[in-house]
Amino acid sequence: MNIELLIGTWLLTGSISLNSQIKFIGDEPDPNGVENWLNGNSNNLIAQVEATEGLTLTISSDGKFFEERTGEPKVYWFDREGVLESEVIPFNGHLSFYDSKAFLLVDDLVSWAVPSDEVNKKKLRSDDGDTKIADSVEVQGSQLIRTISVVTDELYLDRVIIVYKKANK
Which domain of life is it from (predicted)? Predict the structure, then answer.
């Protein structure tokens, strides 16, 4: 992933979310289900996003990102600590590049939400033992696609697709 493609100010244009559960193989949860969900995407949902606005995401050349709420965006939102909120609560952080993907990570994350192993520290925004969140970004054409993948209790799945367009300079 080339950071040059990500640099700039991006304006929220739409979002969609879905909820699911880990698939079972016989009587047991799929042993790869959690990892597959956290590493997956739902790009097939991009065409179905619901229009919304009121959030900017700025990514700087030093790999830092800043969010600013500028209205009342309608987005299924997990805050910096991984808590599902009724409204968008922006946070700041830095990019992490792992396995050809770019991830948004929180600066100064509370200690109980810091992932425990080195690989997950590079790709998980939060891991408090019950909830794991991967928050990745990629450029597709003229859009920035943000995919937030959440696993709760090793069973319940949420995915939020957030679509941005680049702000005019």
Answer: Bacteria
How many angstroms separate the CA atoms of 56 and 165, rounded?
10
End-to-end CA distance of the chain: 23
- Structural domain total, the chain: 1
Give the pLDDT of residue 1: 67
- Residue 78's domain comprises 3-166
Which positions of the chain have pLDDT values less than 70?
1, 169
d(C-alpha 55, C-alpha 154), whole Å: 30
Sign of the torsion formed by the C-alpha atoms of 118, 63, 41 and 90: positive
Name the DSSP letter for residue 38. Answer: H
CATH of the domain at 93: 2.40.128
* Count of CB atoms situated within 10 Å of the CB of 4: 9
Q: For the whole model, what pTM was predicted? A: 0.95
30, containing H or E segment: none
Q: Reduced to 3 states, what is the DSSP secondary structure of residue 112?
A: helix
Instruction: Determine if residue 64 is left, alpha or beta; phi over 0 gives left, psi from -120 to 50 gives alpha, anything else beta.
Output: beta
- What pLDDT digit, counting tens, does each position of 90-100 carry? 999 999 999 89
